[in-house]
Specification:
about 270 residues; Rossmann fold; seven-stranded mixed β-sheet; alpha/beta; 9 helices; globular
Length: about 270
Amino acid sequence: MKIVILANRDLPSNKALNELLPVLAEKHDLEVFLSSHVGSHKDLPAPLQMLRFFEQTLFNDIVFEATEQLHSGAAPYSFKQLAQFTQSPIAVLNGINTPSGLTTLASSHPDLIISIRYGGILREQAIAVPEQGVINLHSGLLPDYRGVMATFRALSNAEHEIGTTLHYISDPGIDTGEIIGQTRLPVAAGRSYLWHVLQLYPPACRLLAETVAQIDAGQRPLAKPQPPGGHYYSFPDEADITHFLQAGYTLYDTDDITGIAREYLGHERPA
């Protein structure tokens, strides 16, 4: 199959692509487009601005460039290096629902579209492009945690587990499509929000690869409508962050980030 993957230009998306692309490239032709960010850069509380620095600026502008200069042949790979698994260089595609965005998407001739943390909401014309539909890997358990930073909300709500949901996108509703499957992980006391998010992707990408294999075999995955209820969350405000911190959590841990950077630069892997 020809598969187009829509992701975000951030560290968690990169980690997910490192898990997924080598597996899918064994049988499928791949193309990857990245959104520049999720939501607006403006008016975010200072802690979220710092989180965005660690998730995007530090790795995109410093760590990944250094990784490329080292010419390391070992994973994990920068976005540029991940192009070894795709049919063309990985490119930024914002405004996917605009005429030019739709032309770019359609010219890739995808049989299937996979969305992972992509920053845009796909409208009807984009959803209609692939014959096999659009599936989204959401970093939260649906329907209870729709929207952005679902793991933050789960930790803040004192959940004992976090998870992901693989679901179809059949309309522009946010995280509302039929559920294909879910993965779950226990919450680890003392670990940061970002650490928890990164742990989600190895099992979630295995589920995603299994689903792609099923679709490739001509078997539409059994998907179930979401139960009624649930909750949609937007970006946390100052009060939300204060509550999160008072619950004993942190958004990031600089030791973790240093370990991840060293992993990309060819040193020891983080714990």
